[in-house]
Amino acid sequence: MTFSIAGFCRETGQFGTAISSSSICVASRCPFIAPGKGAVLTQNVTNPELGQLGVRLLEEGFDAESVLARLVEHEAHPEWRQLQVLDAEGRSALHSGAETLGIHATRQGQDCVAGGNMLADEAVVDAIVACFESHDGELAERLLAAMDAGLAAGGEMGPVFSAGLKVTDRASWPVVDLRVDWHVAPLSELRMIWDHYLPQRDAYVLRAVRPDDSPSYGVPGDER
């Protein structure tokens, strides 16, 4: 009930994920990122523990194939899980268990990996990867464009209602972590949130590392 992408930007070192689903609050349980080390997407009948374990393995220096092998070995019900792993070198690994729902597909691309289930067509995932590979701009923009391409190619068999965008940079926490937990057009809503957040993103990073040099919030009561 989900389609998603994880991507890596070699220029900035950023890792990111974008995801959408007919299920509520998809971004709360499926995308996981180890800053500077890689990303894991766990979906279909989701076990978030696999994302947590995958991040720890990436942080320990395991490559994508090794992480995936350990996740499948660890999981008691691998036939129900769909997993995509992207490591620090942009390498990827994929798993779709025998019980993955509906039309499903996974694809590896240049510095990206994508997958989906309950799709309108397998070409949805091809469109996601192709758009990411050809799109210019910063990582978040490429991820959003890729998701829009997947939706335009058919998306899920039914309507989607939630979406999320997460990007890590040099900080230990995501510099972008945006969610639409329930909306009739979640990717459009996510794009609107991103457009409002982008002009403020760097200020929020600065407030964390240099509060004495950070800009005003521009709200009543903040007189700096």
Provide a descriptive summary of the structure in words:
The chain is α+β, with helices and mostly antiparallel strands. The chain has five helices and ten strands. The strands form two sheets. A six-stranded antiparallel beta sheet has the order 7-8-1-2-9-10, covered by helices on one side. The protein has a four-stranded antiparallel beta sheet with strand order 3-4-5-6, with helices on one face. A hairpin with a 2-residue loop joins β7 and β8 (112-117). α1 runs antiparallel to α2 (64-74) and α3 (123-134) packs antiparallel against α4 (139-152). The longest helix has 24 residues, at 186-209. The protein is globular. InterPro entries: DUF1028, Ntn_hydrolases_N. Pfam families: DUF1028. This is DUF1028 domain-containing protein.
Strand order of the largest sheet: 7-8-1-2-9-10
Sheet bearing the most strands, described? 6 strands, antiparallel
The coarse silhouette is: globular
Helix content: 25-40%
Radius of gyration: 17 Å
SSE order, as H and E?
A: EEEEHHEEEEHHEEH
Q: What's the total count of β strands?
A: 10
Strand content: 25-35%
First-residue to last-residue Cα separation: 47 Å
List the uncertain runs: none
- Continuous helix count: 5
Structural class estimated from helices and strands: alpha+beta
Mean pLDDT: 97
Protein name: DUF1028 domain-containing protein
Pfam families: DUF1028
